[in-house]
Amino acid sequence: MIDPDGYRPNVGIVLMHPDGRVFWARRVHRDGWQFPQGGMNSDETPLEAMYRELREETGLLPEHVEVLGATPGWLRYRLPQRAIRRNDRLVCIGQKQVWFLLRLCGQESDLRLDLTDKPEFDHWRWVDFWYPVEHVVMFKRSVYARALRHLAPAARQVAGPAAVPTPGPEFRAADPAGRSRSPRWRGAGCGPG
Fold first, then answer.
1. Residues 6+ apart with CB under 8 A from 109
2. pLDDT score of 189 more than 50
3. For residues 61 and 46, is the Cβ–Cβ distance under 8 A?
């Protein structure tokens, strides 16, 4: 599914440990690390796609997480020219994403990377909240900065200001023009904490 502007609808997942560190995973057969993310099916809402991708890529179920927030619309990034497949009927030039911030309520043992025939990741670790912005592949850095900047206040309420400090000027990239309306979502909580 690609929109008329060439962007594929997608969801991104920032899974946060209660101490403010975030889930950071290594792609199978690659040296690249990233947050879980994946394309939306045409019959899915962003929230439904997020829960499906969460299960496929991390093994977690809705009862293992609490939705703390989401970006207020689509955040876009363009693919590098070398990654654009021009032989396809519809040319995808990038992704448009709704990003979700989730708090882990389950146990680390609930995380399973091997539940599908083709796992997305082969290793994971917890990293400081802002670490991914400087360590993801270059063409995703701006969208990671925008997503984390938006989600940081909700993360800070759970983990505190020491765990999620205010970002420096390098993270203050301007939002791209053409924002769309905020998608609606409702998350289940995982109790007090």
1. none
2. yes
3. no
Are 3 and 88 contacting, i.e. CB atoms less than 8 angstroms apart?
no
Alpha helical stretches, state H, the chain: 46-58, 131-135, 141-159
Burial readout 166-191 (b: 16 or more C-beta within 10 A, e: otherwise): eeeeebeeeeeeeeeeebeeebeebe
Lowest mean pLDDT among 15-29, 107-121, 137-151, 161-175: 161-175
Q: Tokens 């040319």 appear where?
A: 91
DSSP calls for 137-189: -GGGHHHHHHHHHHHHHHHHHHH-TTTSPPP-GGG-PPPPS---PPPP-----
Q: 165 versus 90: which is more confidently predicted?
A: 165
Alpha carbons 64 and 189: distance in angstroms, whole number: 9
| Encoded tokens for 59 | 């093994």
Q: Which amino acid is at 12?
A: G
**Residues 12, 6 contacting (CB under 8 angstroms):** no
Residue 17 dihedral angles phi and psi, to the nearest 5°:
-70, 150
Percent of the chain with pLDDT over 90: 71
DSSP per residue, 161-175? TTTSPPP-GGG-PPP
| C-beta separation of 26 from 121 below 8 A | yes
